[in-house]
Amino acid sequence: MTARMEHRGATLDLLLAALSDLTGYDEGHLARLQDLLELPADGRPEAARQRTRRLELWRRLLQDIPLDERSFEDRFGLTGRRATIAHLEAWCLGYRDPNGGRPAGPDELFGFVSLFLLTLLGLAESEAQRSLPQPGAVTGRSGRALTHDCDGVCGVLVAEVAVAEVIADVYSPQRRPAGRGAAETAEPARREWDAMQRKLGFHRHGSTSMILRGATADAVHGTRPEFALKLILYPFTRIGTLAQATRSYAETYGTSSTGSRHLVRVWASWDSWILMDFIEGRTLAELVRAEWGPEAAGAGQTASLRLDRLREKALLLFEALEDLQRVARDDPVHGRLKSVHADLTPSNIIVSAADGAFKLIDLGRNYLYTHTVTGTAGAEAAYIAPEVKAGETEIARADLYSLGQLLILFGTGRASADGVVPDIFYMRAALLARFVEDLVDADPSRRLLIFSAGSGPELSYARLKDGFLAELDMVQAAEQGESDLRVETGWRALRELMRPLAGDPGREWRLWRMRRRLDERPESDRGQFTDWLLAWSLLSALIWAVTNTVVVTWFLRDLDLDWGNKLVELVQHASHTPEGLPIIDTWRREGYEVPDLRANLPARIVGLSYAIAAPKYYQMLFSGLTPLVIGWRAGSMTRLALATEVIMRIMAVVPCLLVLAITLVEPRWWPINSAIGQVLTLLANVLTLAYVRAVIVRSRQLGLSTVPGDDTKITGLSSFTQWVPTSLFYATAVLTIGTALYLGLLHDVYVYALAVTSTNLVLFYAIKCGIGGPTIRVTIVRICLAAERVGRSTAH
User: Fold this and answer.
1) Residue 534 C-alpha from the chain's centroid
2) Per residue in 483-498, pLDDT tens?
3) What is the pTM of this model?
4) What three-state secondary structure class fits 375?
């Protein structure tokens, strides 16, 4: 065996050396090549035995080509793969040129050298595709090769009759079965292969293959069916598992009698090829690149979430997966294998030009991802479930992971390289983030923890689609029908300055109304908090409106302005109160006079700044969220969740109540009430951060992949962490100086009041809550969703 391998390697070395000397059509060089390739030099016909031996040699030569460029260069020294390709391109294209002085030598020589070149080009393209920097990266024009002029080389050479004949000979099914189960597939494979018309065209490169197209020799119903011929590059056929999977592909995944709309009809397969229907159209990868353009390849965070594209393509994908399930149920022998695609990537989905349907191709494991094939797995490895990459036998839930990644792709134009849902979902579509998280957990047992769609053979994509559409409808209802949701971080979040309540009361109201319209669904048990969260959001909005109205009104009263309020005049007349406000004015403590602008101005401006900043803080960070989703059986974490919930809801009302107290009862309290408000803010930040940290730790202990393993990759966490020392410093300063002012130990009242007011409006309202608030909310949303998964994991 070793001697044979050495002989085969030596033969390839000699062939490369001969090809490297092939600069023209020198008869000596051509004769040497013919001798190495065992072509008869005198042009006499070959005996059957000679032909069989020659084709076996050719297969071995092709099979022995190193898979990657570095191995090629290590083996052949200075004759690198790129130089070899450039040299052979010039010779092959010159050979076919009618003005190039074509020699009288056999066309088989030209055919084999061209196939050798096509194999090298295929390996270079495979390596380049697997080296793309990230999922969704746009490199070159849609459908074009990355390493060469595919139309000018591959397209031209494959169209040559001599090349097509060599391909037909080299890839023809061997007469002797090659292993267990081969005998049953040999005859159908030979029959289909012989019926194939030898006129071929080049279609595209695959990850381990090249795909050709052609038509059958015999017409069926007046037409010649077009076929796609997937040729496994010969160096990959030396991998036994890959050859076995390719040979049995037609038997396992054949769909000739199912009437499937979404699965491509497979005709036959052999160790090195698969013959199937040709589907006119683009791959999903090409379609997404064309739709998103440079936006999908941009560095950093995804810029937008397109709900219209997400809905359109998700429906097509769910339809295809439902069809896959139907076909699997109808096949008692191979149904279990057919029910899972296992390689559901954008390149394996063809968007039919005829009706726009998604056509699923290349079912079964891709051995690039299991490291059976050497080299990097490529950008599309991001769509493959971890259990498939690990080579595990149980992969019943693998397509759920791919589905989640594809939903991310549909909405953002790119997949998630680390399996974590992009921030834009948490910022603008938390319900969709929750749905996608339930699909992309690395542990298959933790997929569909929240949404119920069955398991194993009972998994229903139709049921899962209903859940997805319900969540999408609620997101669009909350966002008032917007289709393009944009990132709101940094200075892009300046528009938040114009929305004192961050738009959340309206959003919660629309969500509540949509939930009321939807039928009750088992996976919607998070809706038990809907009424609770809506009530607090509306209460916060109401007290914001009341507090600001009262402070502005009392400020006008201090200016002794007649605001012309007829309702107040009516109340005064009915209560026989000639001036002031009945009942309310009786709450004022002794010495509190209205109007008295000079004495009351510090309380008015500080109170107004808190009445503006405090509701913004609550609505931006906490409204619509609750740590109680962790459940009641999480021990100390449940207790921490309860404490965090209490402080969150306190922040909805108490700061404004403190403002009302200094406005309606005693303005001298403003330094003390300011200190109380800052202490509450500090407590809210500390408890919320403690809850965030606890959930992160517990998530990592459980192995939840939806929470990044590196704190620096959790958007907003580092900023939120810095809020605690900042609020501690500010609370300490306000408490110290405020107490001194209240006790009369300090007298710079106006200076201190202006400092507190400017801090509240500029630092807290504009910078922290307005510009930085969205990123902090991303952290809290992500953690609340993770907490729900932690609770479900603990319960399971």
Assistant:
1) 30
2) 888 766 555 556 667 7
3) 0.88
4) coil
